[in-house]
TrEMBL record:
The lineage of its organism: Bacteria, Bacillati, Actinomycetota, Actinomycetes, Kitasatosporales. One of its GO terms (cellular component) is membrane protein complex. It comes from Kitasatospora atroaurantiaca. The keyword Transport applies. This is Putative ABC transport system ATP-binding protein. One of its GO terms (molecular function) is ATP binding.
Length: 251
């Protein structure tokens, strides 16, 4: 019997076009982008300001809709879903980490972590939640509110929340943008662990070459197009590539 080895795709966009505005003010934020985000891999998205990184992430995650082309989470095409089903899909199959943490102030650390499961009406897998709490190192802070935590601690809670439902893919938008380098490195280490130990798919937008160096692959966007990719990135390698783009090479 033949064995077919397939890399599962956690998320992808095909021939994605996103146009904002009309007439003279029209902006083509994505210009025929095709990209796959494999399961069990950490992908970073880089590029100059305005190159379409956030747009790509938002459209891939069903937070915004494409003008043309298609976006999939696993085998599900997002364009075919109504608002209600899209909301359910985001809640059950995608984890989000934002630059500004976005924890619920009135809830405790523990309640924030299990919030996606509570909203989905799912019973938390207590063993899994305990593992996550252990990994983020905040076991003694479970009854605290977000305002009682440092930025780095809050972002570690946000990562645990994103992982709590074992989603098909985690999208992280500048997760280290508001953190000092040490807290940032802790958060990146957590995301890396989620990929290596849990087989999680992670997609991260970042401006920071040393953050991107934690990924398995870096995708480079310029003017809404995918212009390059780098496997096994190093911070220096990514920085050199970014500088080359700024000089206008390789477009
Ligand atoms: N809601 C919107 N309305 C109009 N234009 C928009 C909108 N959102 C983004 N754009 C434009 O689309 C282009 C891509 O924006 P996007 O935010 O995806 O870039 P980015 O690479 O994430 O930038 P940054 O690194 O500055 O966050 C930019 O020219 C931006 O001005």
């Amino acid at each position: 019997m033949m064995t077919v080895v397939e890399t599962a795709v956690a998320a992808r966009v095909a021939d994605a076009v996103k146009i904002y505005g009309v007439g003279d003010t029209q902006v083509r934020a994505l210009d025929h982008v095709t990209v796959e985000f494999p399961a069990g891999r950490f992908t970073a998205i880089m590029g100059p300001s305005g190159s379409g990184k956030s747009t790509l992430m938002h459209c891939a995650a069903g937070l915004d809709t494409l003008t043309a082309g298609s976006a999939y989470i696993g085998g599900t095409e997002l364009g075919g879903l109504n608002d209600r089903r899209l909301t359910v899909l985001r809640r059950e199959r995608i984890g989000f980490v934002f630059q500004s943490f976005n924890l619920v102030p009135a809830l405790t650390v523990r309640e924030n972590i299990t919030l996606p499961l509570d909203l989905a009406g799912a019973d938390p897998d207590e063993e899994w939640v305990a593992t996550l709490i252990d990994v983020i190192g905040l076991g003694d802070r479970l009854r605290h509110r977000p305002s009682e935590l440092s930025g780095g601690q809050q972002q570690r809670v946000a990562v645990a929340r994103a992982l709590a439902g074992r989603p098909q893919v985690v999208f992280a938008d500048e997760p280290t943008g508001n953190l000092d380098s040490r807290s940032g490195a802790e958060v990146l280490g957590l995301l890396r662990q989620a990929v290596d130990v849990m087989g999680q798919a992670v997609v991260m937008v970042t401006h920071d070459p040393s953050a991107a160096a934690h990924a398995d692959e870096v995708l480079f966007l310029a003017d809404g197009r995918l212009v390059d990719r780098m496997s096994g990135p190093t911070a220096d390698g990514v920085l050199d590539r970014m500088k080359a783009f700024e000089r206008g090479e390789g477009r």
